[in-house]
Design a protein that fits this description.
Layout: H1 4-9, H2 11-18, H3 24-67, H4 71-86, H5 88-107, E1 126-131, H6 144-150, H7 159-163, H8 173-192, E2 196-198, E3 203-205, H9 206-211, H10 214-218, E4 224-225, E5 230-232, H11 237-242, E6 247-250, E7 256-265, E8 284-294, H12 299-316, E9 321-325, E10 337-345, E11 350-359, H13 363-368, E12 370-373, E13 380-382, E14 384-392, H14 393-403, E15 411-412, E16 426-427
Parallel strand pairs: 2-7, 6-12
Antiparallel strand pairs: 1-9, 3-5, 4-5, 7-8, 8-14, 9-10, 10-11, 11-14, 12-13, 15-16
Helix pairs in contact: 2-3, 3-4, 3-5, 6-14
This protein binds one RNA strand through residues 42, 45-46, 48-50, 52-53, 55-56, 58-64, 66-67, 74-75, 77-82, 85, 248, 369, 376-377, 380.
Length: 428
RNA sequence: GGAGGGGUGGCCGAGCGGUCGAAGGCGCACGCCUGGAAAGUGUGUAUACGGGAAACCGUAUCGCGGGUUCGAAUCCCGCCCCCUCCGCCA
């Protein structure tokens, strides 16, 4: 959620920033709508509060009069209060209505892109750097769906029987490889990068989902249990962000660096057709997620650190990748700046998005009411929240198979991963 | 799922219809005392929103939502969460 006060005091600045991710007239119209409704709200609120103040002081005087035994005078004041209160329900209703209107109009405005974020849509994404040299094959490299099927790592044929298409059924060494990758990533972030591990519920209630703004982004994308109104995690990010919801943190403890493994569920309704083969786009996948709670001044520095924490995974696995900075129009709703990491998959001949590292500034923290005190007695300030995948498993699994395949269809296991597979150097 | 008990400020804990944003204590901050410290002592110490240049003022908040009342932390109803016991269960 954006700061309503910024919209009040600097609407042009807000419109200019939003225009990087949507047509300017559209941005202008949305901002003006918020301002207009907000003005009405404040007027209504003021009027209502003045009358409430009058009622409060009258009620106090009634108490005093009663104690002094002046019951008839007290009765007169009571009558006056009753008159004021008769019209109070309408005023309250109006104020509530306007407040809800402001919240919902404000709620659809996405975060303001950072200065360094390019304007425009996907076509303006920038490749920041590439790392690793794609291996030159002296044979046509196979796609991971063929490799995985041939090596009996994934049972693509039987999987749909269990929960429909888009679900993976890992088998034998395939399941173990998945587990090993999760372990490697967690250990790396915990031991080398200083993150604290959490194991969270895999479902969240509506309050939590709403607080981190995922309800806007994900509602139709999320699996939802109607009986208890619980949502399956689309990512562990909202779980990690809600840990400190409605809290005022001690500034000395920042930044908080959290990491969690979780399965992620996404309905991806209507996405059928593109990138659906193999592991490219599935309804349930494993992910190791990083979240940082930071001081506002250090959030962009922390974003760079988080990005390198994520690329360390690919470096360890010897998978070539490139870093793409997203243009404003391609940013997720809460992000001000975002880097995608794309792993190269020589078999599928594609760049696969395996991580997305975003600085959401104070956008999520505002709705979730996550603040910190710089020092004792200082006014609470909103923290900045960052999230990044470190990394998403299926596409890393795919890139691993495709990059390290041999002519005979076997797969070399990168050295760093071998300890997690009992020293295994090769599959097949 | 059933029965009972409970949710008050950073923490502990009083309050059970008016003077209560809330006693007292702990913690914390600043001052006094001290050669320095401890002890002692004094003062201060919630959050959000609105108004105001500011001082400050107003409104709301005692788990959440509603109700009764001129007035609710206090009474009533619903929900959520925690604890104890019972049942079921990996």
């Amino acid at each position: 959620m954006l700061d309503i006060r910024l919209i009040r005091t600097s609407p042009d600045q807000v419109v200019a920033a939003l225009s990087k991710r949507m047509p300017e007239d559209q941005a202008r119209a949305k901002v003006d709508e918020v301002r207009h409704t907000d003005e009405l709200l404040r007027k209504a609120l003021q009027e209502s509060e003045e009358l409430k103040a009058e009622v409060n002081s009258a009620s106090k005087s009634i108490g005093l009069l009663m104690r002094e035994g002046k019951a008839d005078e007290a009765a007169k004041v009571k009558d006056r209060v009753r008159v004021i209160k008769e019209s109070q329900p309408q005023r309250d209703a109006l104020a509530r209505e306007l407040d809800e209107a402001v919240q919902s109009k404000l709620g659809v405005l996405p975060n303001l892109p950072d200065e360094s974020t390019p304007a425009g849509g996907e076509e303006n994404n920038v490749i920041v750097r590439s790392a690793g040299t794609p291996k030159q094959f002296d044979f046509p490299p196979k796609a991971h769906w063929d490799l995985a099927a041939d090596l009996d790592l994934i049972d693509f044929a039987r999987a749909p029987k269990l929960a429909g298409s888009g679900f993976i059924l890992y088998k034998g060494l395939g399941a173990k490889l998945e587990r090993a990758l999760i372990q490697l990533m967690l250990d790396l972030h915990i031991d080398k990068h200083g993150y604290t591990e959490w194991q969270t519920p895999f479902v969240l209630n509506r309050e939590s989902i709403t607080a981190s703004a995922h309800i806007v982004k994900f509602t139709p994308e999320m699996y939802h249990d109607a009986a208890d109104d619980l949502f399956l995690l689309p990512t562990a990010e909202p779980a990690l962000v809600n840990i400190h919801r409605d809290e005022i943190l001690d500034g000395d403890t920042l930044p908080l660096n959290y990491v969690a493994y979780s399965p992620c569920w996404r309905r991806e309704a209507g996405a059928a057709g593109k990138d659906t083969r193999g592991l490219l786009r599935v309804h349930q996948f494993d992910k190791v997620e990083m979240v940082k709670y930071t001081h506002p001044e250090t959030s962009y520095y922390e974003l760079e650190k988080m990005l390198s924490n994520a690329t360390d995974v690919l470096d360890l696995l010897n998978i070539p990748y490139r870093i793409v900075q997203l243009a404003a129009g391609d940013l997720s709703f809460s992000a001000a700046k975002c880097y995608d990491i794309e792993a190269f998959a020589p078999g599928a001949k594609a760049w696969l998005e395996v991580s997305s590292c975003s600085n959401c500034t104070d956008f999520q923290a505002r709705r979730a009411a996550i603040r910190f005190r710089a020092k004792q007695g200082a006014k609470p300030e909103l923290v900045h929240l960052l999230n990044g995948s470190g990394t998403a498993l299926p596409r890393v699994f795919a890139a691993l198979l495709e990059n390290h395949q041999n002519a005979d269809g076997s797969i070399n296991i990168p050295e760093a991963l071998q300890p997690y597979l009992g020293g295994l150097k090769k599959i097949g």
